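Structure in, sequence out. Go:
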């Protein structure tokens, strides 16, 4: 499932983040790439633990926590601390798949990457190229979102970022270990939750809504990993 969520950051949060990101010192993005990704990764990145990355990461996590659609789609158990990258001057990231297990630099705790996320900090008109291309059984999804919007997609997907030929593309990227390991099961629960919410709005008090809610939670009990 590939899902986009608009405006998870406020205008004030975006403005603060852009000032911080534009003034930050960037390093070669290969420092956090796996063996295969190192051969195709050509971008810049804030080092893990950098004060700007830590501060903005907390902002991103707070925004996710107040976004019901993110919670419904990702069903997060753990979220890897958000990281930040910059593409400019032809920078790109060739076709790759994300590393299955990542360790937190601060604690060594391991996180399984079930869902990948990209949160855009640059508006589409600020740069040319830089599309995120995500492959699945239905073809290739091209993603280039307004600043403050996020895309979620299965970490098992092949994906790439096309060369940025004008301007700069700023984004946050991170991974989620979901309570529901499989993308198909997460999609089923997401669709069921969406139907429940629509029924509650269109026919409040309808007994079918209670029954469907029970089914949702019983499936969650059966499938969730904690």
């Amino acid at each position: 499932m590939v899902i986009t969520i608009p405006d998870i950051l406020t205008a004030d949060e975006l403005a603060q983040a852009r000032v911080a990101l534009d003034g930050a010192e960037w390093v070669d993005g290969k420092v956090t790439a796996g063996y295969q990704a190192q051969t195709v990764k050509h971008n810049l990145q804030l080092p893990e633990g950098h004060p700007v990355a830590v501060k903005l990461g907390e902002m991103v996590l707070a925004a996710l926590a107040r976004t019901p659609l993110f919670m419904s789609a990702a069903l997060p158990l753990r979220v890897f601390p958000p990281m930040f990258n910059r593409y400019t001057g032809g920078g790109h990231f060739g076709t790759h798949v994300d590393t299955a297990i990542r360790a937190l630099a601060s604690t060594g705790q391991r996180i399984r990457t079930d869902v990948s996320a990209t949160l855009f900090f640059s508006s589409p008109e600020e740069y040319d190229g830089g599309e995120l291309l995500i492959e699945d059984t239905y073809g290739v999804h091209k993603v280039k979102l307004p600043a403050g919007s996020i895309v979620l997609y299965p970490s098992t997907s092949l994906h790439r970022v096309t060369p940025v030929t004008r301007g700069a593309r700023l984004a946050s990227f991170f991974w989620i270990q979901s309570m529901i390991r499989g993308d198909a099961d997460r999609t089923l629960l997401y669709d069921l939750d969406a139907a429940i919410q629509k029924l509650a709005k269109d026919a409040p008090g309808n007994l079918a809504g209670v029954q469907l809610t029970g089914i949702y939670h019983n499936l969650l009990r059966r499938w969730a990993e904690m």
